[in-house]
Amino acid sequence: DLGAPGVGIWSTTPNNTYSSFSGTSMATPHVTGGAALYASTHPGATAKQIKDAILQSTIPTSSLNGKTVTGGRLNVSGFSDRSIGENRGRKPFGPRFFVRTNSARSADRT
Question: Is the overall model pTM greater than 0.85, yes or no?
Fold first, then answer.
């Protein structure tokens, strides 16, 4: 397993508003989105190949050592061709996205 953003995540709420939430319910969509991004650029990838690509692309994070199997956090811009041999030559994802916690916008380009 791995770490993913899950604290102070802005989400849509009823009546066309935004609210900040924390927890696994906020982290799970980030990983699911990462899986969808990988699958969209690697047609025919199996579930195992997608999982391996996600786990092999994590960014080592000291606070996750001993808490996650990988000791790292989600890094969709780091998907590499090492994780799925038949797709060598593909470029990493871009642009990169980050979560903003100081405005009503949930994601913004860097």
Answer: no
Record the tokens describing residue 37, joined without a space: 């991004």
SS3 readout for 3-49: ECCCCCEEEEECCCEEEEECCHHHHHHHHHHHHHHHHHHCCCCCHHH
Vertex 39, ends 48 and 53: CA angle to 5°?
Answer: 45
β-pairing, 59-60 vs 72-73, is: antiparallel
What does the pLDDT look like over 34-90, one tens digit per residue?
A: 999 999 989 999 999 999 999 999 999 999 899 999 999 999 888 755 444 444 444
Q: Any idea which residue has 């990462």 for tokens?
A: 34
Assess contact for 100 and 10: CB atoms under 8 A: yes
